[in-house]
Amino acid sequence: MPDPVRLPYSQLDQLPDRDPEETAEWRESLDAVTEAAGPQRAAYLMRRALEHTARTEGTALPSLLETEYVNTIPTSAEPAFPGDEALEARITAWNRWNAAAMVTRGSKLGLGGHIATFASAAWLYETGFQHFFRGKEGDGSGDQLYIQGHASPGVYARAFLEGRLTEDHLDHFRQEAGGEGLPSYPHPRRLPWLWEFPTVSMGLGPLSAIYQARFNRYLEHRGIKDTANSHVWAFLGDGEMDEPESTAALALAGREGLDNLTFVINCNLQRLDGPVRPNFKIVQELEAQFRAAGWNVVKSLWGQAWDEIFALDTDGALLRRLGETPDAQFQTYATRDAAYLREHFFGANESLQALARTLTDAKLLELFQTSRAGHEPRKVYAAYQAAVTHKGAPTVILAQTVKGYTLGAGFESRNANHQMKKLTMDEFRAMRDVLELPIPDSALEGGTVPYWRPAEDSPEMVYLRERRAALDGPAPARKVVAKPLPMPADKAFDSLKKGSGSQEIATTMAFVRLIKDLMRDKETGKRWVPIVPDEARTFGMESLFPTAGLYSPKGATYDPVDRDQLLWYKEAKDGQILNEGITEAGSLADFTAAATSYATHGEPMIPFYIFYSMFGWQRTADQFWALADQLGRGFVIGATAGRTTMTGEGLQHADGHSHLIASTNPAALSYDPAFAYEVAVIVKEGLRRMYGPDAEDVFYYLTVYNETKVQPAMPEGVEEGILKGLYRFNEGTKPQADSPQLQLLASGTAIHWALEAQQLLAADWGVAADVWSAPSWTELRRDALECDAARLEGEDRIPYVTRALAGAPGPVVAVSDWMRAVPDQIAPWVEQDWTSIGTDGFGLSDTREAARRHFGVDPQSVVVQALAALARRGQVKPETVKEARERYGL
Predict the structure, then answer these.
(1) Contact 275/269 with Cβ under 8 angstroms?
(2) To bridge 427 with a disulfide, which of 108, 412, 423, 648 should be the other Cys (CB 3.0-4.6 Å)?
C-alpha cells in the first residue's frame, strides 16, 4: 500500500476533546513505541486497542478495511472438524478424477471444457456438500447454490458418484443435440432437474445471488414462505469480480444485513489469460471493498504448513514480505524450485534469510506450491462455519487456492491453464498417484481414460449417502412442486374491455389499473410482486403505495414527509412493492428471483417489472437471457414505449428497438398492444399460460404508452387475433365502387396514426383502407417459422398472418413506433405487396408531432407511403404521390 499523505490538519480537530492532556499522553506513548520498537509494533498495539474497544458493548468504531495477509481465523480458533477427513479426501479425489476424465474424453471431439477451475475449488465445493448445503427434501426450499460456471465438471462428477448421472451422461458432456447430453455450464433450461441458477455469464451470478437472498427475506416477511433455514451460497472467481455486476449490489446486501448469504470467492489469483492483479493483491482489494460495503470478511489463505513458519516470524518480516509481494510474483513462486524461493523471496532481508535457513527445500516447496487454505477441509469448514453463524451481515470468504491443483506441473499456476482441455495418459498416471487412487496401470493402458467409482457398499459411498441424507437430499437440485394458481375473476379484465367512454387514458395507466384490481383478488392478489426501478410515479403507480406498501426489512424508521396525504410513501416490512432505486440490473435480478420462486421455493409468485422501456432490454439483455435459462415466469412491462411518445426526452430515452432485442429471446412473448382491452386479453392469457394447469416456461413482454387516448370497447371475436398477433380493427369504406384499396397494419400507439390516415385517404384521395391492429409482430413470425418447419416435414400448415390477410385487396403498409425491422419480421409471409415505415435512427427531443414528422410516421406520411404503394401497382397516378407530399408539406 502507498504511504499515507501527511496532512497539516485532522478531521478530529472538529470534535470536542474533553482531556487534551490525556490525548497528548497517548500520542507520546505511541511515538515512544515507534521509536523503540518500530512502526509495525505501534500499528499492532493500535489494532489491538481498536479490536478491544470494538468488542466493548456500547462502542461504535469503524473496522479497518484491510487486515494483514493472513487467515482471519487462527488455527487455534478453528472448530472441531465433524467429518471423516480420510473418507472425504477419497470422495474428493474421485470427483477430481472423473471431472478431468469427462473433459478429456470429450476433447477428442473438439468440444472443449474446463479442468483447472474445479481442480482449484474442489474442497470449497466438497466441504459444502458434506456439511453445509441443504437439499430440497426438507422444507422444499433448501439452500440456493450459485455454482461457478467453469466448475460444472466437478458437480457432474459428484452427481455421477451419487448415482444421479451415468457414464453415458458424462460421455455426452457438451453433446446436447440428441436430447440426453449434459450442458457445458449450469443451464436450468437444458438440465432442469439439476441446475437451479445459470451463472456462467460472469457477474450475473453474484448479482442474482444477492437479490435471491433478499427475495427469500421478502417471502418470509410477507408471510408466504418460512425461508429462515435457506442459505444462499455464491461461488465466484476472483477474476469474475472485475465485472461491474459482481459488485453492483454489495451495499444492498450489507445495508439490509443479509446474513442468509455467503460469497465464496476462489482466489487462485488467475483470470482466463493471466494474473487477476499482476502488480497488486486481489485478496486485499476485495477485502477492503466488501468491508466498506458492510460485509463480514473471512480470509482463508494459508494451510497448516504455514502455522509453524508464522510462529517463527517474531519481528513481522514474513508478514511484511507476503503483504508486499504482488500476485503475479506469488504465482511465479508457486512454480519455481527451492533455490529460487530462497533467493527471491527470503533473500529480501537478513531476518528472512535466517528464517529460510531453518527450512528444508521440501518444506519450502510445500509452502509455496500446495499449502493453501482452500485445499484443506479443516480451513474451509472453519470459514463456512463462521459464515453461517455470523449474524447481522452477509459474509464473503476469500479462499486462496492454486488453479489447476493436483493436475500436475504442466497445469498448476500456469497462465494458459484455463484453455487447457485435456490431460495426457502420463499426466493421469501422475494425478492418480498424487490422489492415491486405487486405479491399476492396466486400466490406463488404452487410449481412453476410464471413469472410476467405489463399490456401492464401500465406506466412501455409504458416507456420501449418509451425509446427503442428513442435509435433506441431493444438491444442487431443482424441483417444481408448485400447484397451479386459480384464475382471477373476470371483473378486473372486463372493466378494460368496456373501454374508457369519453375519458382519455394511456395504456400504461390501463395496465396499472388492471394490476391494482388483480392485487385485490382474495386467492392470488398477495402473489403479485410489483417491481419498479424508482419510476413508479412516472408510471402512475403511486396509488399502490399506501395500499400495497413498499417493502423494507426495517419498515419505516422515520416520519414520512407526505404522511398526511392520500397517496403517501408507505414503507413496511410486509410491503408488496419492490422499489429498487435507480438500478435496472437490480430490478431484473429481483424479477428473476420472484419469477422462479415456483421452483426455488414451491411458491408461485406473479412478478411484474415495469420500467422506462429504453432502459430495459437495451441495458440488461444478458440478464433477460439468464432469466429465460432459469425458466422464469412473469410480466415485463416496457412503459413510456416507442421512439416518439416521450416528448422532449431525446436520443437516449427514445426506445424504438426493444421489441427487436426481445424477439431474439425464445422465452419472451412480446406484445405491443394498441388499446386497453388488448392489454386485458394478453394479461389474462399470460396468467393462464404461466400459472395454469399446463404452465409454460415463458415470460411476457408488453410495451405500453404514456400518450392518453380514448380507449374503445373491445369488438366481438377479436381475442384470437389479439393473442396470435393480428386482427382487422376497422374496415374502410369505399368512397366509390372502383376506389383503390389497401391494408394498414399498425401496433401500439401507431394505430391512431393509421386511423387518421384512413380518414385522410378516403376524404382526400378516394382510397379505401382497412386498419389492422398487430399486437405482436414477433408472435406472427414465430408462428410462420413453425409452419415453415412443419411443411418441410410434410404437414400442410399455413401461417396465421397469411391466412388472416388472405384475399385482402391492395398492398399492405405497416407502421409502428419501432424500427422497420420490427414489422418487417412478417414480410416473407405476406402475399400482398409489402411496405413498412418506422422510426429508424436515433431519437430526438421535440413534440410528438414534430418527432413523427421527422421520422415520417405521422398520419400524413402514412398517407403518402400508402399512395406510393398504390402507384407502384398502377392503381393511382404517380403524380398523386407528389401532390400529396406538397399538400401535406412533406
Answers:
(1) yes
(2) 423
